[in-house]
Design a protein that fits this description.
The chain is built from ten helices and 14 strands. The chain is α/β, with parallel strands linked by helices and about 300 residues long. It starts with 5 loop residues before the first strand and ends with a helix. Bound molecules: guanine. Guanine binds next to strand 7 and helix 6.
Amino acid sequence: MIEAFYKAKSKAGVIMSAKLLEGKVFAAKLREEAGKRAEAIRAKYGVNPGLAVIIVGENPASQVYVRNKHKACTELGFYSEGIEMSENTTREELLAEIDRLNKDEKIHGILVQLPLPKALQPYESEVLEAIDPLKDVDGFHPVNVGRMATGQQSLLPCTPHGCIRMLELADIPMDGANAVVIGRSNIVGKPMMHLLLSRNATVTICHSHTKNLAEITRQADIIVAAVGKPKFVTADMVKPGAAVIDVGINRIAPKKLVGDVDFDAVKEVAGAITPVPGGVGLLTIAMLMQNTVAAAEMQLADK
Ligand code: GUN
């Protein structure tokens, strides 16, 4: 069963040492789970899970992500609202739109695509805090961050939660494992630390001021790279057999994406590794679908 998640790739007749953790395999499983829970909601309440995605301005990468989120909703039969607001949107207009969606019973999840345009960036925290925590499918609201940190039930950030679910589905042990997270962002690094800790890993979080980084990463059974630097994790930083999860997406040429891990070299040392593209990125949207379902379940149970 577990072997179905792995694909040993043959290169020049040599089987590479690391198991390839393919995002599409795990994402399919996670979407299937979301689909089944959505079906149960329809049967019990006669209600379809609904997601609203707000995009402000015309960031091309954000436009692609938002399109993919809408497509995933459509495939699962969710109600989906895409709200495109102009680059010149004011703080007040954006907050009014969030307020409208907070009150809309058809909408169970609200996501404001980041980054916001420059003029709105000073208000990012205010914007994220304006979302009803029960509809906060990004898990970025301080109420949800605090609930996660204290081990209470909450909507969890999609990318780190997707990584955890992938490790579980791939049977990579977290209990008692040394896990090293490289990067301390609010979106990935810090929540990853909390979620690994909740699975009883011994967690170290490294960042730009960390001394002797390679010495620390060489102790790791699990490395999560989320620094945003192309090919930052090199083979000498990895213990043989370690699981290496690459959250980075770096565009190094118009049509060339690479991760934070030097994949070609690290795959010869690691026990399991995610590719970029085709790895963790695919899990994020699947987990957004799961969070939309979870948000609908909570809101409908409260009624
Ligand atoms: N931009 C890049 N990643 C994310 C994400 O996970 N959520 C939101 N809202 N914006 C993003």
